[in-house]
Specification:
Elements (H helix, E strand, L loop, with lengths): L8 E11 L6 E5 L2 E3 L12 E4 L6 E11 L7 E8 L13 E2 L4 E5 L2 E5 L5 E7 L2 E4 L7 E5 L7 E5 L4 E6 L7 E7 L5 E7 L9 E7 L4 E10 L2 E13 L1
Antiparallel strand pairs: 1-2, 1-19, 2-3, 4-5, 5-6, 6-7, 8-9, 9-10, 10-11, 12-13, 13-14, 14-15, 15-16, 16-17, 17-18, 18-19
Length: 238
Amino acid sequence: MDTSSTSMMSAEKETSHVTASNKSALLGVSDGQEFSQSDALSFSSFRRGTVDPRTGSFNYAIPVARITGNRRRGPSLDLVLKHNHFSSRNEGFGAGWSLGLSKFFKDNDRMKLLLRDGRIIDLIEKNGTYLVETVDLKNFILTKLPSPEKGYKISYKDGSTEILKPVTSDDRFIYVTEIIQEDGYKLNIEYAFRESVSPSPFVKRITDELGEELLLVSRTGLNSRYNVTIETLKTSVS
């Protein structure tokens, strides 16, 4: 893999702001212009709202960015801020809001796996290892990482892989930390955990193998009121 100097790379910043304590107050900045809830964010090309015909619930999605690491060699990652009407989990963006990255989570004392495509898979625990309970799923394989590493690997049919590891010292939260495409190039995802902000870890930074920061997430404020700033870096070879 090419790990040469990144001095030939230029960066363009885009910033989005989300007031996590108030789901109705979503702000964004694009191309130097600030948009409010009342105008630009109402455009269907920017945000999407759909009704689930099975449950009648309203689901909401705001595209944040498409990032590509390693001087455009990949992997690419589409980040979308989604709201789940049935979820009360707070991952640093407010209750029910999530970037939809793969993770393990508990629901009614049952361990489940959230996949990158939004599917939620029931898991069973056997001899300290989580196994997929649904047997007819054939487009991914979940395996435990070899000892002494803690965590799991999701291998997809398209050749890509996700590594999920504990992101807190007590091993309670197992989140995706690496996204690897078929040729070996990868993205690294870092998390922060402050219970004064969120009861769950939240994305802090996404980098590639060159050490380039592709996405930064910062938060100001405490407890139920805080602001979230998302900065994406568009990198290109000059």
